Amino acid sequence: MSNSQTVKGVVALKKSEPVSVVDIVIPAPGPGEAVVQVQSCGVCHTDLHYREGGINDEFPFLLGHEAAGVVESVGEGVTEVAPGDFVVLNWRAVCGDCRACDRGEPWYCFATHNATQKMTLTDGTELSPALGIGAFAEKTLVAAGQCTKVDPEARAAAVGLLGCGVMAGVGAAINTGAVTRGKSVAVIGCGGVGAASIVGSALAGASPIIAVDIDDRKLETARELGATHTVNSSQVDPVEAIREIVGHDGSEGADVVIEAVGRPETWKQAFYARDLAGVLVLVGVPTPDMTVPDIPLIDVFGRGGALKSSWYGDCLPKRDFPMLVDLYRQGRFDLDAFVTEEIGIGDIEAAFEKMHHGDVLRSVVVL
Ligand SMILES: NC(=O)c1ccc[n+]([C@@H]2O[C@H](COP(=O)([O-])OP(=O)(O)OC[C@H]3O[C@@H](n4cnc5c(N)ncnc54)[C@H](O)[C@@H]3O)[C@@H](O)[C@H]2O)c1
Ligand SMILES: [Zn+2]
Ligand SMILES: [Zn+2]
């Protein structure tokens, strides 16, 4: 078996400080672990949350978690992947043994696997890998179950995005929201995650599919990806607009409304933009200081339906990644449209800046 090795990785050393490219030490894979040679990794909003201390205070973080690559080596007892396999990394390696897994709902698994050993700085300081992955690096150490084999002919920069944001968005629609043929859907916030919810809704046969954003560039992309209507909510009241679009049959809004911003005011819009007995899916991630907006309890009761959250699109990587990669390869899922630019490992700060200004769906580091 190989020894530990030193590679380049992008680390957030201190809260709110620019990230740096530094040498990191990758241990040889132990039992149940794999070392993956990273080929691509998308820049997700959550990486910025980590840098800002918005997730926890376990600095230094090894950032990056939307990745594809090739398995380089595996530890003892690993049978599901082998060196040379092309994989998308996931942050839901289900345990098969917790109470969620036991009751047949593994997408809620409460004890998902990550690597047991720690990657470190060269002075031995232990790194916290973002979402247990840490893939803004030439190589990373993960649990073998975090490697999902997919069609090796697929473009890494595109399919790696299934590792987080795109899967979260698609799954929010088809898994959590149970969008099917003929249902009406509205998506509030059409960044990488919301745009993926639009694709998921279109694949499921929903109609109409209403895209809501405050940025016309995002609305344009949403339309290209399958939205039938667009609403700029900085100009019009989105609740009224959604009701008008779907309300011809007397309904009070969309069957499913997906909130992909993560703010109280957009959650409230989503709440009231649902038809009676409709479903609200919160996939945007709020910050700890945010609270549920002031809504009369009688409205919660009276409007009925379901108020759900969607973690990682309630996905099962082994079931969902290969299926979505196949749709991509068949030309039915334009994953390439999500890759706004390919960048180098030293360009993460610039990518955060572009994300902040809404200039990109995804910047993707290519190694
Ligand atoms: N639940 C999960 O598993 C999961 C996974 C990945 C990301 N996320 C979260 O999803 C959210 C979106 O991520 P993203 O990568 O698409 O971010 P993004 O920055 O690319 O997109 C956010 C979009 O929301 C729009 N927006 C902002 N304020 C708005 C408002 N008031 N009304 C309407 N639109 C508004 C922006 O213009 C932008 O298009 C984030 O909170 C992110 O942390 C959740
Ligand atoms: Zn479990
Ligand atoms: Zn993410």
Can you walk me through this structure?
The chain is α/β, with parallel strands linked by helices and about 375 residues long. It has 2 domains: about 5-165 and about 335-365, Medium-chain alcohol dehydrogenases, catalytic domain (Quinone Oxidoreductase, Chain A, domain 1, Alpha-Beta Complex), CATH 3.90.180; about 165-310, Rossmann fold (3-Layer(aba) Sandwich). The protein is about 25% helix and about 25% strand. The chain has 11 helices and 18 strands. It has helices at about 45-50, 100, 155-160, 165-175, 190-205, 215-225, 240-245, 265-270, 295-305, 315-330, 350-355, and strands at about 5-10, 20-25, 35-40, 60, 65-75, 85-90, 120, 130, 140-145, 145-150, 185-190, 210-215, 230, 255-260, 275-280, 305-310, 340-345, 365. The strands form 3 sheets. Strands 3, 5, 6, 9, 10, 17 and 18 form a 7-stranded mixed β-sheet that branches. Helix 9 (about 295-305) links the parallel strand 15 (about 275-280) and strand 16 (about 305-310). Helix 4 (about 165-175) packs parallel to helix 5 (about 190-205). The longest helix has 13 residues, at about 190-205. The radius of gyration is 20 Å and the shape is globular. The two termini are about 25 Å apart. The relative contact order is 0.15. The model has no long low-confidence stretch (mean pLDDT about 95). It binds nicotinamide-adenine-dinucleotide and zinc ion (2 copies). Keywords: Metal-binding, NAD, Oxidoreductase, Zinc. Its cofactor is Zn(2+). It comes from Aeromicrobium piscarium. Its EC number is 1.1.1.306. One of its GO terms (molecular function) is zinc ion binding.
